Amino acid sequence: MIETIATARPLRPLPRPIDRRAGFTLIEVVAVMMIIALVASLAVTKMSGTGRGGLKALTLEAAALLRRERLGAVLTGQDRQVSLDGERRELVGDGGGVLAIPRDVVLDVLGIDAVWSGRQAVVRFAPDGASTGAVLKLSRENAEYEIRVNWYTGGVAIAP
Protein backbone atom coordinates (compact mmCIF):
# COMPACT_ATOMS: atom_id res chain seq x y z
CA MET A 1 0.00 0.00 0.00
CA ILE A 2 1.20 3.39 -0.84
CA GLU A 3 0.75 6.14 1.61
CA THR A 4 0.86 9.77 0.66
CA ILE A 5 1.97 12.28 3.15
CA ALA A 6 0.56 15.72 2.77
CA THR A 7 2.98 18.48 3.45
CA ALA A 8 1.73 21.70 4.92
CA ARG A 9 2.33 24.48 2.52
CA PRO A 10 1.26 28.02 3.26
CA LEU A 11 -1.55 29.10 1.06
CA ARG A 12 -0.73 32.03 -1.18
CA PRO A 13 -3.34 34.03 -2.93
CA LEU A 14 -3.31 33.61 -6.61
CA PRO A 15 -1.55 36.50 -8.34
CA ARG A 16 -4.02 38.87 -9.90
CA PRO A 17 -3.28 40.50 -13.18
CA ILE A 18 -2.02 44.07 -12.71
CA ASP A 19 -4.55 46.63 -13.84
CA ARG A 20 -2.61 49.67 -15.04
CA ARG A 21 -5.76 51.79 -15.06
CA ALA A 22 -6.38 51.45 -11.31
CA GLY A 23 -4.46 54.56 -10.14
CA PHE A 24 -2.27 57.51 -11.06
CA THR A 25 1.36 57.24 -11.96
CA LEU A 26 3.95 59.38 -10.25
CA ILE A 27 4.47 61.40 -13.43
CA GLU A 28 0.78 62.26 -13.62
CA VAL A 29 0.71 63.42 -10.00
CA VAL A 30 3.84 65.56 -10.46
CA ALA A 31 2.44 67.09 -13.65
CA VAL A 32 -0.79 68.09 -11.91
CA MET A 33 1.17 69.59 -8.98
CA MET A 34 3.30 71.62 -11.40
CA ILE A 35 0.21 72.98 -13.16
CA ILE A 36 -1.34 73.98 -9.83
CA ALA A 37 1.90 75.72 -8.76
CA LEU A 38 2.08 77.60 -12.07
CA VAL A 39 -1.51 78.82 -11.81
CA ALA A 40 -0.98 79.87 -8.17
CA SER A 41 2.17 81.83 -9.02
CA LEU A 42 0.38 83.64 -11.84
CA ALA A 43 -2.51 84.51 -9.53
CA VAL A 44 -0.17 85.97 -6.90
CA THR A 45 1.69 88.15 -9.41
CA LYS A 46 -1.57 89.50 -10.85
CA MET A 47 -2.92 90.63 -7.46
CA SER A 48 -3.37 94.38 -7.48
CA GLY A 49 -1.87 96.58 -4.85
CA THR A 50 1.46 97.31 -3.33
CA GLY A 51 2.54 94.92 -0.62
CA ARG A 52 4.98 95.65 2.18
CA GLY A 53 7.92 94.66 -0.04
CA GLY A 54 6.68 96.84 -2.87
CA LEU A 55 6.29 99.78 -0.50
CA LYS A 56 9.85 99.33 0.75
CA ALA A 57 11.13 99.15 -2.84
CA LEU A 58 9.23 102.33 -3.69
CA THR A 59 10.74 104.05 -0.66
CA LEU A 60 14.25 103.01 -1.69
CA GLU A 61 13.66 104.28 -5.23
CA ALA A 62 12.38 107.63 -3.93
CA ALA A 63 15.42 107.97 -1.65
CA ALA A 64 17.70 107.15 -4.59
CA LEU A 65 16.00 109.86 -6.68
CA LEU A 66 16.58 112.41 -3.91
CA ARG A 67 20.24 111.36 -3.52
CA ARG A 68 20.83 111.63 -7.29
CA GLU A 69 19.41 115.14 -7.33
CA ARG A 70 21.61 116.18 -4.39
CA LEU A 71 24.67 114.73 -6.12
CA GLY A 72 23.67 116.49 -9.34
CA ALA A 73 23.47 119.83 -7.50
CA VAL A 74 26.94 119.37 -6.03
CA LEU A 75 28.53 118.25 -9.32
CA THR A 76 26.92 120.88 -11.56
CA GLY A 77 27.10 123.75 -9.08
CA GLN A 78 23.44 124.60 -9.70
CA ASP A 79 20.29 124.22 -7.64
CA ARG A 80 18.39 120.98 -8.27
CA GLN A 81 14.88 120.27 -7.10
CA VAL A 82 12.43 117.43 -6.72
CA SER A 83 8.73 118.16 -7.11
CA LEU A 84 5.47 116.23 -7.00
CA ASP A 85 3.10 116.08 -9.95
CA GLY A 86 -0.20 115.48 -8.16
CA GLU A 87 -2.25 114.70 -11.25
CA ARG A 88 0.12 112.05 -12.54
CA ARG A 89 1.20 110.92 -9.03
CA GLU A 90 4.91 111.23 -9.87
CA LEU A 91 8.00 112.53 -8.13
CA VAL A 92 9.98 114.46 -10.73
CA GLY A 93 13.63 115.45 -10.44
CA ASP A 94 15.41 118.17 -12.42
CA GLY A 95 17.86 115.57 -13.68
CA GLY A 96 15.09 113.74 -15.53
CA GLY A 97 14.33 111.13 -12.89
CA VAL A 98 10.65 110.26 -12.55
CA LEU A 99 9.12 107.94 -9.99
CA ALA A 100 5.46 106.90 -10.26
CA ILE A 101 3.53 106.55 -6.99
CA PRO A 102 0.92 103.74 -7.15
CA ARG A 103 -2.71 104.65 -6.42
CA ASP A 104 -2.89 102.54 -3.26
CA VAL A 105 0.09 104.33 -1.65
CA VAL A 106 -0.46 107.50 0.37
CA LEU A 107 2.31 110.10 0.11
CA ASP A 108 2.49 112.79 2.79
CA VAL A 109 5.06 115.54 2.24
CA LEU A 110 6.30 117.90 4.91
CA GLY A 111 8.44 120.44 3.11
CA ILE A 112 8.44 123.88 1.60
CA ASP A 113 5.16 125.33 0.40
CA ALA A 114 5.87 126.35 -3.17
CA VAL A 115 5.00 125.45 -6.75
CA TRP A 116 7.71 124.83 -9.35
CA SER A 117 6.82 124.34 -13.01
CA GLY A 118 3.20 123.71 -12.06
CA ARG A 119 4.16 120.95 -9.59
CA GLN A 120 4.17 120.92 -5.80
CA ALA A 121 7.66 121.50 -4.41
CA VAL A 122 9.20 118.75 -2.32
CA VAL A 123 12.85 119.69 -1.77
CA ARG A 124 15.55 121.87 -3.31
CA PHE A 125 19.24 121.00 -3.14
CA ALA A 126 21.89 123.73 -3.17
CA PRO A 127 25.32 123.40 -4.83
CA ASP A 128 26.97 123.11 -1.41
CA GLY A 129 24.89 119.97 -0.65
CA ALA A 130 22.45 121.67 1.73
CA SER A 131 18.72 121.50 1.12
CA THR A 132 15.41 123.02 2.09
CA GLY A 133 14.72 119.86 4.10
CA ALA A 134 11.72 117.58 3.79
CA VAL A 135 10.01 114.51 5.19
CA LEU A 136 8.21 112.16 2.82
CA LYS A 137 5.98 109.52 4.39
CA LEU A 138 4.90 106.65 2.14
CA SER A 139 2.18 104.45 3.63
CA ARG A 140 -0.24 101.73 2.74
CA GLU A 141 -2.59 100.06 5.23
CA ASN A 142 -0.40 99.08 8.21
CA ALA A 143 2.99 99.68 6.60
CA GLU A 144 4.75 103.02 6.41
CA TYR A 145 8.22 104.38 5.71
CA GLU A 146 9.67 107.85 6.08
CA ILE A 147 12.34 109.51 3.99
CA ARG A 148 14.01 112.38 5.81
CA VAL A 149 16.08 114.99 3.99
CA ASN A 150 18.33 116.93 6.38
CA TRP A 151 18.14 120.65 5.66
CA TYR A 152 21.73 121.35 6.75
CA THR A 153 23.65 118.49 5.14
CA GLY A 154 21.14 117.43 2.49
CA GLY A 155 21.60 113.84 3.64
CA VAL A 156 18.78 111.42 2.80
CA ALA A 157 17.81 108.77 5.38
CA ILE A 158 15.04 106.18 5.52
CA ALA A 159 13.22 105.49 8.77
CA PRO A 160 10.84 102.52 9.09
**What's the rounded overall pLDDT mean?**
83
CATH superfamily of the domain at 52-159: minor pseudopilin epsh domain
> What's the number of helices?
2
Can you tell me the CATH class of the domain at 52-159?
Alpha Beta
Q: Name the strands of the widest sheet in spatial order.
A: 3-2-1-6-5
Largest sheet report? 5 strands, antiparallel
- CATH topology assignment of the domain at 52-159: minor pseudopilin epsh fold
Annotation, overall tally of beta strands? 9
What shape does the CA trace take? rod-shaped
Q: Which stretches are low in confidence, meaning pLDDT under 50 for 5 or more residues running?
A: none
Distance between the termini: 103 Å
N-to-C order of helices and strands: HHEEEEEEEEE
Rg over alpha carbons: 34 Å
Strand fraction equals 25-35%
The SS-based structural class is alpha+beta
CATH architecture of the domain at 52-159: 3-Layer(bab) Sandwich
Q: What share of residues is helical? A: 25-40%
